[in-house]
Each structure stands twice: as C-alpha cells, then as structure tokens.
Amino acid sequence: MKLFLASKIQYCLEKIQILLHKPFSETKVIFIPTASVLSKDKSFVESDLNHWRKLWFIIEIMCFDNIKTITPSILSKLKDSDIIYFSWWNTFLLLDRIKKVWFNRIAKDLLNDWKIFAWSSAWAVIMWPNIYPAHNVDDMTVTENISHDSLNLIDFFVVPHFNLLELKDNLKSIIDDCNVIWMKYMTLNEEECIIIDIEK
After folding, report:
1. Alpha carbons 56 and 129: distance in angstroms, whole number
2. What's the distance, Cα to Cα, between the start and end of the chain in Å?
3. What is the tens place of the pLDDT at every residue in 44-76?
4. Domains identified in the chain and CATH numbers
5. I need a labelling partner for 118 at 20 to 30 A (CA). Which of 30, 34, 151, 166 fits?
6. How far apart are the C-alpha atoms of 21 and 23, rounded to whole Å?
7. What three-state secondary structure class fits 197?
8. Residue 155 near residue 183, CB atoms below 8 Å
C-alpha cells in the first residue's frame, strides 16, 4: 500500500519520488477534482493541477461527478495509472461521490496493485474508517449521505493545516472529537506530508 498524504501538495510534491521507480515525466497521474464541483472558486484546483504539470507528470483529469459508476474503461485507466490524486474542498462531498461510483469497492484492489493514492488537505481524512470529526471544518449538508463510514485504510485520523491560525479553533475541535472517542490522530503543518509504503 502506497499513500501520500499532505496538507498542501505544492509544498512537498517532490517527495513523492520516494514511492516511485521512474522519473516524473514517465509517471501517469489520474487527477480527480470531484470534491470541488460545488465550489464557485476553483482557483485552488488549477493551482494543484499546475504543480503537477510543472514537474512534468503525465496528467489525465477524471471527475466522478460526470459518471454513474466505475465502468470497465474507467477501471482500465485507473489501473494503467501510477498515481491517483484527489484534489480538495469538501470531505463529505468527496466521500459521497466515491461511494456513488463504487470507487470505495475497488480502492483496496488498486492499492494492492501498487497504485499510489495521493491526497491533500481534508482528503487525507478519507483514509480513516469514519470522517465525522471533519464536520468541524467542512459542511456536512452538501450531501444527503448520512453515513460517515469511509475507506478504512489507515488507523489514525489526519489533521491537516495544523499551523494555520485561522483554523486553530476548528482543528482543536477535531482533536477534541478524536480524544472523546479514543481515536488516534496525526497533525500536519503546511509543509509536511505522510508517506506510507508497506507490503500488501
């Protein structure tokens, strides 16, 4: 299983080389902006995309909001990629779309096939079994999905942007939630990332 979890991808993207066995210019990336579909300002998505392009990755954009399910042709593209990257905005919206297209059903198979999952900001939260603490930062009402059960790929909750003063109170509330239910957590400042590389 190969995971790359960051607060802001532009500060640490080059470190993803640790998980690769080829140059960036030969590395295929599926870029998924699905979580931002309801955001009026999409400049942060363009910023994310530009950081990948500046390092000469081979990019293909795939939006789960435009498909009903993972078809054989889509699955083939995912399997042919080296990295699957989820751009950020609302955690609950992304989880809802992931479940609607059944990506959650194939996630572990893709990881077992040595695909790298890369997530920035709140999307790193989706790796944990339950995303409920994210309600302190993200609006849960953007989706009707009442289940917060997530991908269950790691055993700790990621708390990104830990050094941002404007999110200080929100992040403290997330940690308080984690402590109430005895949930392990790990904080990330803007420049940090978590790299996981373990056998199947």
Report:
1. 34
2. 6
3. 778 888 999 999 999 999 887 777 888 999 999
4. 2-197 (3.40.50.880)
5. 166
6. 7
7. strand
8. no
**Cβ atoms 159, 121 nearer than 8 A:** no
Cα gap 51→86, rounded to integer Å:
14
Contacts of 66 (CB under 8 A, 6+ apart): none
9, two tokens:
């991808």
Q: Following DSSP, what letter does each residue of 142-193 receive, concatenated?
A: G------B----SSSEEE--TT-GGGHHHHHHHHHHHHHTT--EEE--TT-E
Burial class (CB in 10 A: 0-12, 13-18, 19+), 124: buried
- CB-count exposure of residue 23 (10 Å: 0-12, 13-18, 19+): exposed
- Which residue is listed with tokens 């409920």? 132
Cα dihedral across residues 114, 119, 122, 123: positive or negative: negative
In whole angstroms, give the CA distance from residue 85 to residue 49. 10
Would you state the pLDDT for residue 108?
85
Residue the block writes with tokens 């194939």: 106
pLDDT at 55: 95
Between CA 51 and CA 117 the distance in angstroms is 17
Supply angle C-alpha 171, 158, 188, rounded to 5. 70
Supply the pTM of this predicted model. 0.85
